[in-house]
Amino acid sequence: MEPTDQLDILHVSDLHISLKDTFGRETVLGALVDRVKKDRKNGLQPEIVVVTGDIAKTGMQEEYTLAANFFNALLAALEELAKQEETDLSLYLFHHPLAWLWEKDRRICRNLLDRSIVLCGHLHDAAGGYFHDLDGSLFQFQAGAAYLGADSEYPNRYQHITIDWGANCILLDFRKFNRDKRTWVLDGETGEDGTKTIPLFDTQKRRGTTIKPISILEWPDSYCQWITSNYGHNEINSPINL
User: CA 214, CA 200: separation in Å to the nearest integer?
Assistant: First the structure.
């Protein structure tokens, strides 16, 4: 791969790998690997693979073993990744979008992540863009779910993100699984006919600004109330001491 002024990223999220539904999973994710190989021949050559969470369905060790098989196949399709040199751009990875964080944590993160690029998942849909408010500015890009089932009414999705310093823009290239053809195709429902170009700001941090994380020695009541109201319905097999 020749050096360029571009950084290509393959962004995958929400695989939900389980010990069940083996045929459907292999149909969708196997086709995903095939599509990545095809896209490489057509010029989309990722230098970084990003996976933003929900890899396993229930968190069992066996599910992560299956996930490792998929990742090994994906990396084999992108074999030149191991030959790449270091990059000077930092990307921040979250599973949940920043809006899902507790308000005080979100404000801290927004200050620390000023003029940066955040990649996330969780909501099973492609979304994002440039955000600029009193807490600073950043890009946030959310990937759809790579696997919700071979016959899911809601499409399986992933995306390519190309940072082009020469053209001073970010190009998003969206893919979705066509359940009738059992193959991955251009996601014409997302962006502008499957792609989206966004102007790129200068990602260099502001000089002379140092923000230290706040150390919380005990959980504030407002945080405990937030956890209870948002996640109190979840079943927990073992007690968690906060």
Answer: 30
How many whole angstroms from its chain centre is CA 89?
16
Query: CA–CA separation, 128 vs 142, rounded Å?
Result: 6
Between CA 51 and CA 15 the distance in angstroms is: 9
Q: How does pLDDT run across 154-199, given as a tens digit for each residue? A: 999 999 999 998 898 999 999 999 999 999 999 999 999 999 999 9
Residue given tokens 């270091």 in the structure block? 86
Quick check: 78 and 36 in contact, CB under 8 A? yes
DSSP 8-state assignment for residue 17 = B
In the structure encoding, which two tokens stand for residue 52, read together? 């933003």
Instruction: Return the domain boundaries, the chain.
Output: 6-207
Beta bridge partners of 177: 184
Q: Is 201 exposed, middle or buried (0-12, 13-18, 19+ CB in 10 A)?
A: middle
d(CA 219, CA 242): 7
Provide the CATH topology of domain 6-207. Answer: Purple Acid Phosphatase; chain A, domain 2 (3.60.21)
Report helix, strand and coil shares of the chain as percent, to nearest 5: 25, 25, 45
Query: What is the value of pTM for the model shown?
Result: 0.73
- Token pair, residue 196, equals 């989206």
H or E segment and range at residue 132: strand 127-133
Identify the residue whose tokens are 């149909």.
Answer: 27
Q: How far apart are CA 171 and CA 153, in angstroms?
A: 27
Q: How far apart are CA 144 and CA 157, in angstroms?
A: 5
At 141, give phi and psi (nearest 5°): -125, 130
Rounded distance, CA 145 to CA 152, Å? 11
